[in-house]
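re: ur question from yesterday

yeah so i grabbed the chain u mentioned. its 91 aa long if i counted rite. heres the sequnce exactly as i have it in my notes:
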Amino acid sequence: MGADRGDDTSPYAAPARATDLSGLPPAYILTCGLDPMRDDGHDYAMRLMRADVPVELKDVPGAWHFFEAFAPQRRSHARPPRTGYAHSEPH
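ran it thru and got these structure tokens back, copy pasting raw so excuse formatting
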């Protein structure tokens, strides 16, 4: 983060900066409607999908970053039973 970040950052430390996402394990990505980083999460999920990585993406409208810690018993953010993964068609 920030203007002084170098190009030598390992993709293990900042996976969104990796140029090749193929071969990564399946991902579950939870984004929140009021989180300033929501679009970054969506963009990363789409990049994973384009690299044929199985992705389960869930967005919670009206929620803020780390909201689940304030109401852990709520089911609105609970991970649904696995029924498959969302995939995008290659562009």
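noticed a couple things. The chain is about 15% helix and 15% strand. also The CA atoms of residues 17 and 36 lie 18 Å apart.
anyway ttyl
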